[in-house]
Write a structure and sequence with these properties.
Layout: E1 3-9, E2 14-20, E3 36-39, E4 49-50, H1 53-56, E5 61-62, E6 70-74, E7 77-82, E8 89-96, E9 99-105, E10 117-123, E11 131-132, E12 142-145, E13 155-161, E14 210-212, H2 221-228, E15 232-240, E16 246-248, H3 261-275, E17 279-285, H4 292-298, H5 303-316, E18 321-325, H6 334-350, E19 355-359, E20 362-363, E21 366-367, H7 369-372
Parallel strand pairs: 14-15, 15-17, 17-18, 18-19
Antiparallel strand pairs: 1-2, 2-3, 4-5, 6-7, 8-9, 9-12, 10-11, 10-13, 15-16, 20-21
Helix pairs in contact: 2-3, 5-6
Length: 373
């Protein structure tokens, strides 16, 4: 029977695996295999080394409390099979009625083994204790956490899972509070018509204040129009979601075609404002987040592809005007700005009545130099 010896010295971070054949004399003399010493310096901290006796004729293992690597020894060599996944990032939360719609970005590395599921945990005491949200096994990077208490703030964290094990948890999300009714507005009856700004819509000069549609509850657009005597509003901000789509505030659950209750409420508010004689312009970009043009540029997509995304937004929301809010790092990215303008010019070729506006940074004395450029 073959035998083996295993020697491990943790303080030297090396091991020796010796295989020697014994027993009946072989007809042909074999060259004795020298013991091979293999350094463990290249392994990551908190890793496990396991030996497959079927491959090596040896049995040995060495691990510490946070084992993350499976390995095999065969022919006196070591090969790493797989790791646990990396850490999920960018956990975003959108409030709903007794629920939170959660999105996140998959880990940069799956550890060499496909991610099979995500563990989603929520806390109502800022992370002191956590509750695991039970849901069907899925590698999707979004879900809705239900059964929550309206008026209570929650934070969320996400953990990736593959065949080897689970990742470290993501950073906690920003606190989010479920509420009873999105927007809290009753549009069951026809509201009293408002008087459009300056007696007409979209004149050469008009007043259309910004409204942040990433807020929750969803802003009451026709209520704001009546309260402040305006008929036009600029809705911000359409940004790139983690999946690379246009979405309010860059949330995957707030894309143009989303069935999430907040996304539906936003569309209802736009319709309600138009029913009373008002209209909206949508602003793309903003000081924070990533614009769709930046996202497309990173993925090597050109103006025609970006134009298709812009055209879908214009048609879905029935827009007469769009605004590009160019500030932050975007104002100093001329190639990104050119991509935006080339794309919207393509959209205008088939929609010549579409108006395009630019929002640029200014000082009391006028445009900044980046704005002039």
């Amino acid at each position: 029977m073959p035998s083996s010896s295993w020697t491990a010295r943790a303080f030297q971070k090396t091991f020796t695996n010796v295989f020697q054949s014994r027993g009946i004399q072989a007809r042909r003399r074999r060259k004795k295999r020298l013991a091979k010493q293999i350094s463990l310096e290249s392994l990551e901290p908190r890793q496990m080394l396991s030996v497959n006796p079927a491959l090596s004729g040896s049995t040995a293992s060495s691990a510490n409390d946070n084992s993350t690597i499976a390995a095999f020894v065969s022919q006196n060599t070591i090969g790493i099979l797989s790791f646990v996944p990396g850490i999920p990032t960018a956990v975003g939360v959108v409030s709903g009625n007794a629920q939170l719609a959660v999105t996140w970005v998959a880990p940069a590395s799956n550890g060499g083994s496909p991610i099979t599921d995500y563990l989603v945990k929520y806390s109502s005491n800022n992370g002191s204790t956590w509750t695991n949200f039970v849901h069907p096994v899925s590698p999707a990077t979004s879900l809705t956490v239900t059964g929550l208490t309206n008026g209570t703030a929650y934070v969320i964290k996400v953990i990736a899972k593959n065949a080897v094990g689970i990742s470290l948890p993501s950073a906690n999300s920003a606190p989010a509070t479920p509420a009873t009714v999105p927007g809290g507005h009753d549009h069951g009856t026809m509201p009293t018509p408002i008087t459009p700004t300056n007696g007409d819509l979209w004149k050469e000069q008009f007043f259309a204040p910004y409204v942040d549609m990433g807020q929750y509850p969803v802003p009451d657009l026709d209520g704001l129009a009546k309260k402040y005597g305006v008929g036009l509003l600029t809705l911000g901000f359409m940004q790139a979601s983690p999946s690379g789509k246009l979405a309010w505030a860059g949330y995957d659950v707030l894309t143009l075609d989303s069935s999430n209750e907040q996304a539906v409420a936003i569309r209802n508010e736009i319709n309600a404002l138009r029913l009373v004689g008002g209209d909206v312009m949508v602003s793309l970009g903003g000081a924070a987040g990533q614009s769709l043009a930046q996202s497309y540029a990173q993925r090597g997509l050109a103006a025609p592809a970006l134009a298709m995304a812009y055209a879908e937004m214009v048609d879905t929301l029935k827009l007469n005007k769009v605004d590009f809010d160019i500030e932050g790092v975007a104002v100093a990215q001329p190639q990104i700005l050119k991509l935006q303008m080339d794309a919207i010019a393509i959209v205008q070729m088939s929609r010549p009545s579409l108006g395009v506006w630019l929002t640029l940074p200014v000082l009391p004395q006028g445009l900044t130099q980046d704005g002039v450029n």
